[in-house]
Queue: 2 jobs
Job 1
Amino acid sequence: MTSDHFLDSIQQQLVKKLPFVAYSKPKETLVKAILQSNSEVYVVEDYSEKGFVFAPFDTSKDAVLIPIKNSLSIECKHVITNNSENSQSIIQNTDSSKIHHINLVEKGIEAIRKEQFQKVVLSRCEEVEFLGVNPIDVFQKLLQSYPTAFVYCWYHPEIGLWLGATPETLLEVEGSRFKTMALAGTQKYQGTVEVSWENKEKDEQQFVTDFIVNNLKNSTINLKVSDVETVKAGSLLHLKTNITGALNFESSKLKQVLKALHPTPAVCGLPKEKAKQFILKNENYNREFYTGFLGELNFQEKTTRNTNRRNVENNVYTSVKNVSNLFVNLRCMQILKQNALIYVGGGITKDSNPVAEWQETIAKADIMKKVLQ
Ligand SMILES: C=C(O[C@@H]1C=C(C(=O)O)C=C[C@H]1O)C(=O)O
């Protein structure tokens, strides 16, 4: 399908107020969309469903599914963008949101010093003007600006319109093999990835790695943990560890693995339940789908393999694998009638500096603001 035809199809879906998701996986130019043919709200029951899942931060709330069955799947090799200018944001934060966030972080540090938990991820939501902007144009800008991210535009008339470009994989499963990552620690990119990190960032990232390894220990085999590396995500750098292995049960049990992982200390805290209760009680707004997860659930992928043995004709095997590609919903925004809500947060440990944490959220918000100008 041509780029124009693809963009026109998702635009029509939005005009007709029908659910859809358009997305591109990290480092791929292929852009896919799933267009639901009705406006029902389908919810995920047990993660054996096939479709695109959109799950909130709070696991007591429903995850929404755009099922493959009731949808049209389209794709195009490369979306061509006309409008490529990205200018710096001119939108200013108010003093009250700064004070509120700094107070929140101070409260988090105090709770850590009182040993209620070791890490908590605290966030805020920033409202910016979104007048006369076409969300599909913003999607195109996201694709162009953040090619190494999972870029998406998700819409359901009953739930809302979300756009994002996340650097974080929650879980990739292919057959029984899986990949995940521990991503945390932030600093601004200043022309090089050869940077040094403070202990605060090293610690907060290590919490995530340890949590993932501990929580996957019982359901996996051959767990491999990479060295920590510095990765670039837009104008930011993070610390990342890759974790790979094989699940020791079939993917029908994906539900348990997701329950063990989500929300990780990259977006919630440690211990998970205590940090989550602190977030729900103190953040003073609803994260909704921010720091939830999203992506392809149980897609059937055909792989054709020639065994290369001589004298054997038609020696081609086709196998079908169950594939899921799930990402953490970060660097995202929700589009309302005249405004966009940009969601940003950061990991707090005993060594956090509240003003630096505020500045980190500004840098993270800029990633979305850049595509709104
Ligand atoms: C919570 C966010 O990001 C997470 C927190 C990070 C941190 O505290 O340094 C870094 C990457 C993500 O794991 C966000 O982008 O809103």
Job 2
Amino acid sequence: MRDTGTDDPRVRVRPGRRGSRPRTKIRPDFEDALTGRVFRVDRGRYHVTLVEGTPIVAVKARELGRGSIAVGDLVKVVGDTSGRRDTLARIVTVLPRTSTLRRTAEEGEAAGTERVIVANAEKLLIITALAQPEPRTGMIDRCLVAAYDAGMEPILVLTKADLADPAPLLDHYSNLNLTVLSTSIDETTGQTHGVDAVADAVSGTISVLVGHSGVGKSTLINALVPEAGRATGVVNAVTGRGRHTSSSAIGFTMSGGGIIIDTPGVRSFGLAHVAPDMLLEAFPDLLELAADCPRGCSHAATEPECGLDGASDQTAERVESFRRLLEARHSAEQF
Ligand SMILES: Nc1nc2c(ncn2[C@@H]2O[C@H](COP(=O)(O)OP(=O)(O)OP(=O)(O)O)[C@@H](O)[C@H]2O)c(=O)[nH]1
Ligand SMILES: [Zn+2]
């Protein structure tokens, strides 16, 4: 036996592929690591709730690398997991994700690269005000593409139904088979309406809210999770933006089970990588038509031999919607 310079029984000489250097005694043993979920990321600190309920704060093991942990991630933590004040645990592993919602990095970050906003979420709630601010279908379309790409179910939530008629928007999206819900506030009583249906849709799931500043995301979260205490109606008169400048998502546990995640400050999705065939998966009724497409067909209206052109009347509308979403990937518009 080779002399390893130690008599620690845990050190064994393994003549591995990498040569003769022994794995040393500092190789950590994570057998007693605990599992938890990330609810918030703030300046290098990860707010994790352990499976059994204790909220703790953790840092990340260096080998995990930059941007490797997102809100929603299930992680393994070691070290001080007591959750006591001023204690820090350490995240050593990120468990495999079931979904990833991405945004495009903003200026100052590595431009053009993509960052994970939320991991493991099942539903994307696209929050759109019917007025103040005016709805923008370009934004909704881009959110839909992001949801389909992430493997999440999109749900359109139309807020401020007390201020404008939802019919034109409903019409616009009628052939996407989307779940559309609407909420409103009663002007005289201040009572919120429509939140129960939203609660039913998200209960027991991990759901994410996206939407422009001022559409009513905080109002909705407070209605769903009263103890969240989100500040509402704070829009900067100069910039016209809400108070959120950070782009970190934050999760809240719902009393009926499940997690609702707000995404303050997220203004764009990474869509450049979304392939036409990937998006087509969200339109299963068109797959058969596309089977006749030439290899590598982009399914755009300009493709001379795209099988989608053979659609009959009713399906043709679906093709139109699909192609509109295809286009939305390239629009420069944020969101
Ligand atoms: N009339 C009406 N006003 C609403 C409704 N929902 C929210 N509001 C108001 O719209 C304003 C903005 O709502 P917030 O909940 O702060 O919007 P937000 O999306 O969280 O905005 P940021 O925090 O900037 O991201 C507030 O003054 C709310 O009271 C609604 O259904 N009807
Ligand atoms: Zn095609």
